[in-house]
């Protein structure tokens, strides 16, 4: 398999409390398992992917150390394994959110909510098709020294 592509990342501080991060990825992945029929897109790898994330520092609301964030992830369509029937896996857009709090000069706590709408989607096919990750909630603490 061979691949080449482009990835663009932009991070901008829009004002004192709002930061935006955007990402776009183009991947041209080809497989050589085609028995002389050309080189189709490799299975499980979408050509296009993108994300947009907004991060809000809530200190203007009177809560020092609180950050609220939300964002969208786009996963473009892909093909299943080229050796099989070449089904197209449709694209999906997922919504995530996070909230974090700076507890002290050493400790942070963060709650991540992935796939808020719990949309069912197929993440990819490679002979078999696989459901995408279900909604998840993750709590983490971080210690800095």
How does the major sheet shape up?
7 strands, antiparallel
Q: How many domains make up the 3D coordinates?
A: 1
* Uncertain spans: none
C-alpha-based Rg, rounded:
19 Å
β-strand amount: over 45%
SSE diagram, text form:
Elements: E1 2-13, E2 18-30, E3 48-57, E4 66-75, E5 78-79, E6 88-89, E7 92-102, E8 107-114, E9 122-126, E10 128-131, E11 136-143
Could you characterize what this model shows?
The protein is an all-beta fold and 145 residues long. It has one domain (2-143). 0% of the residues lie in helices and 59% in strands. The chain has strands at 2-13, 18-30, 48-57, 66-75, 78-79, 88-89, 92-102, 107-114, 122-126, 128-131, 136-143. Strands 1-2-3-4-7-8-11 form a seven-stranded antiparallel β-sheet, with no helix packed on it. Strands 5-6 form a two-stranded antiparallel sheet. Strands 9-10 form a two-stranded antiparallel ribbon. The protein starts with a strand and ends with a strand.
Descriptive key words:
0% helix, 145 residues, iron, Beta-barrel_TonB_sf, elongated, TonB-dependent receptor-like beta-barrel domain-containing protein, mainly beta
Structure described in brief:
By secondary structure, the protein is mostly beta strands. Helix content is 0%, strand content 59%.
């Amino acid at each position: 398999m061979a691949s080449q592509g482009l990835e663009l990342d932009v991070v901008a501080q829009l004002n004192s409390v709002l930061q935006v991060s955007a990402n776009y990825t183009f991947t041209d992945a080809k497989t050589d398992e085609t028995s002389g029929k050309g080189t189709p897109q490799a299975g499980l790898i979408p050509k296009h992917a993108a994300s947009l994330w907004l991060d809000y520092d809530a200190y203007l609301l009177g809560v020092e150390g609180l950050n609220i964030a939300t964002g969208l992830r786009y996963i473009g369509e892909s093909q299943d394994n080229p050796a099989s029937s070449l089904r197209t896996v449709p694209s999906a857009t997922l919504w995530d959110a996070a909230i974090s709090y700076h507890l002290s000069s050493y400790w942070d706590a963060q709650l991540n909510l992935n796939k808020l709408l719990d949309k069912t989607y197929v993440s990819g096919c490679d002979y078999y098709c696989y459901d995408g990750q279900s909604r998840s909630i993750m709590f983490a603490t971080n210690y800095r020294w």
